[in-house]
Structure formats: C-alpha cells, structure tokens
C-alpha cells in the first residue's frame, strides 16, 4: 500500500510506531523499521547525549529509516533537536508544544517534520510553518490526550490541510486502519499495540495488563490540571482521581505520579505505576513480533479496502 507517507519516509507500509516515553527506545524503533514500518525513538525528557546514543544504537540494528519524537516540554529539547540534525535522522515527530522555532533548522538539514496535533487550528498552523505532514491524534490514545475523538478529528484535519495526515488514537488492527483510510488518512500511528511487541523492553507485567484489559479499563487522569492522561485503572489512578475530586493542589497530584511511568515500564509495578495505554487495549489479546503485528494489520486492512 503506497501513500504520500510511504514515499515521504521511504517505508514499505504506512504504519508509524508512537514515540512513547520509556517505551520507544532503539530496540523497538529498529524492529518496527526492519518490519517495513517507521520506528521512532521517544526522546521524552532524556538528555541530548542519551538520545544520541539511542540513535546510534538503532543505526547499528537497522539500515532502514527511523525517526525521533521530541517532547517540546523537555528542557533539553533544543539540544535534542541539534543532536537529531547532527545524526542525520530521517524525520522527527513532535509533541507537547509548538515546534515552530525548530522547523527551519530541520528543513535545512533535510529532515521531515511531522508534528502531533489535536485540532484543526494547530494542523493548519503547522502546515503554514512548513510541516511535511501531521499526526492527528484522537483522545482514544494512551498517554497525553486532547479533547476530540479520532473519528471526528481525522476528516476535519484532512479537509483543512493539503499535507498528508497520519491518524492516531484508538487504532490497533486492520479494521481501524481501514476506517481512518476511508476518512482520508494516509498512514496510522500506533502506540499501545507496539507496547506488547516481543521487541519491546516493557516489563512483562505491563504487557500482560494490556493483553488482559477490557474495553472499560482505561481512565483519564489530570483533567483538573489541564494535562489529561489516559492510563489503565489501578491503585494509583484510584488515589489520583480521589485527590482530584477533593480539589487537591497540583503539587500533591504531581507528587503521586512522579516517576510513575518508569515504575510501570521498567519495574513492572502495575498497581502504583502509570500504565499508559489507549482504549484499543481491549482489542490487544496477544503478544507478537513487530513484523507479525504489521503484516497482520496490513493483510486485514487490504482485504477490507479492496
């Protein structure tokens, strides 16, 4: 299946792996790229030199194109952006902020710029500033979310911009792929489905929790702070929501979640850690390799789109 995104990124399949903090490191990014998709290293809040090491480790595992996701709230984001240029990365996706100040530097270096957006207004602004494509992400996604659903957001963004649109949020199988293709998307970005991939370094407890998840098992925390996050329910979310309801100050809420994602991903603490996952978790019933995930999705999508 060829689209403007496969041409833009030089990939076989229009499937992009989400740049998830603590999850999207060189093993996963390289495996997705080797399987014909587009892998991403999630820079998150890491220092620039750590990101450089991750890029070089990924290059040692694959000669296929891959990218870096830059979280713009990261105080090291400027240094990370420079490292991305120095290391000749194929493309960057950006989140948690506005990448405008970095776009000229990326474009001059020949790096494709693909911001993650949650509204038509931001998509149009990114196009004006020179973005090559946008990831339009609905609130069904895991982690930090906006307020629009994928089904409503994608066609509106597609109608509003001329650059290619990548759909994200609640997509984890061929049916979801086919659905957003019909809405005008030219690729999908998936996170939760790749969290449980064989090549993912995520702790087995985290993977098992996703595989066993039901349709109602995600919850959104942080609505009162203006930074909503979708995670799987556990003891931590129960306490967090109770504090939110009581009007607890931001500092108290922040203290509860400090280091919680690492606790879940690396240590396997699925009771007190932040088990980020999208609503698609209820459809993820098995572990597979990245190659198996991508090929299964493409087979199903192509049969539906004939």
Topology overview:
Blueprint: H1 4-9, E1 15-17, H2 26-34, E2 39-42, H3 48-61, E3 66-71, H4 77-86, E4 91-95, H5 103-108, E5 112-117, H6 120-128, E6 134-137, E7 143-144, H7 150-160, E8 165-168, H8 174-182, E9 187-190, H9 192-195, H10 204-211, E10 218-221, E11 229-232, H11 235-245, H12 250-257, H13 260-265, H14 290-305
Helix pairs in contact: 2-3, 3-4, 8-14, 11-12
Content-based structural category: alpha/beta
Instruction: For the largest sheet, list the strands in their spatial order.
Output: 1-9-8-6-5-4-3-2
Mean pLDDT over the full residue set: 95
| Unreliable runs | none
Strand content: 15-25%
Strand count, sense and barrel status of the largest sheet are:
8 strands, parallel
State the end-to-end CA separation.
Answer: 11 Å
Order of helices and strands: HEHEHEHEHEHEEHEHEHHEEHHHH
Number of strand elements: 11
| Quaternary class | single chain
C-alpha geometry: globular
Integer-rounded radius of gyration: 18 Å
* Helix proportion range: 40-55%
Number of helices: 14
What does this structure look like?
By secondary structure, this protein is of the alpha/beta class. The protein has 14 helices and 11 strands. The strands form 2 sheets. An 8-stranded parallel sheet has the order 1-9-8-6-5-4-3-2. The longest helix is centred in the C-terminal third of the chain and has 16 residues, at 290-305. The model has no long low-confidence stretch (mean pLDDT 95). The chain has helices at residues 4-9, 26-34, 48-61, 77-86, 103-108, 120-128, 150-160, 174-182, 192-195, 204-211, 235-245, 250-257, 260-265, 290-305; strands at residues 15-17, 39-42, 66-71, 91-95, 112-117, 134-137, 143-144, 165-168, 187-190, 218-221, 229-232. It starts with a helix and ends with a helix. Strand 8, helix 8 and strand 9 (187-190) form a beta-alpha-beta unit. Helix 3 packs parallel to helix 4, helix 8 (174-182) packs across helix 14 and helix 11 packs antiparallel against helix 12 (250-257).
């Amino acid at each position: 299946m060829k689209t403007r995104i496969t041409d833009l990124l030089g990939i076989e399949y229009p499937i992009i792996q989400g740049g998830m903090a603590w999850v999207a490191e060189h093993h996963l990014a390289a495996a997705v790229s080797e399987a014909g998709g587009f892998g991403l290293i999630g820079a998150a809040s890491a220092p620039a030199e750590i990101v450089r090491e991750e890029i070089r480790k990924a290059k040692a595992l694959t000669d296929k194109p891959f990218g870096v996701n830059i979280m713009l709230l990261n105080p090291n984001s400027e240094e990370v952006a420079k490292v991305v240029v120095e290391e000749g990365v194929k493309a960057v996706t950006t989140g948690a902020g506005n990448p405008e100040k970095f776009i000229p530097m990326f474009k001059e270096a020949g790096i494709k710029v693909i911001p993650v957006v949650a509204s038509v207004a931001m998509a149009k602004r990114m196009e004006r500033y020179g973005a090559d494509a946008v990831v339009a992400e609905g609130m069904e996604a895991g982690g930090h979310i906006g307020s629009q659903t994928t089904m409503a957001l994608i066609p509106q963004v597609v109608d509003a911009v001329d650059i290619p649109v990548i759909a994200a949020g609640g997509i984890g199988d061929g049916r979801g792929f086919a659905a957003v293709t019909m809405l005008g998307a030219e690729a999908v970005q998936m996170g939760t489905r790749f969290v449980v991939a064989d090549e993912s370094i995520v702790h087995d407890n985290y993977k098992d929790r996703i595989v066993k998840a039901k349709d109602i098992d995600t919850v959104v925390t942080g609505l009162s702070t203006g930074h909503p996050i979708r995670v799987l329910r556990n003891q931590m979310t129960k306490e967090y929501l109770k504090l939110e309801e009581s009007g607890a100050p931001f500092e108290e809420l922040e203290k509860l979640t400090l280091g919680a994602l690492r606790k879940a991903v690396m240590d396997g603490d699925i009771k007190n850690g932040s088990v980020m996952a999208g609503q698609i978790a209820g459809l993820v019933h098995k572990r597979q390799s990245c190659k198996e995930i991508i090929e299964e999705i493409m087979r199903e999508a192509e049969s539906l789109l004939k």
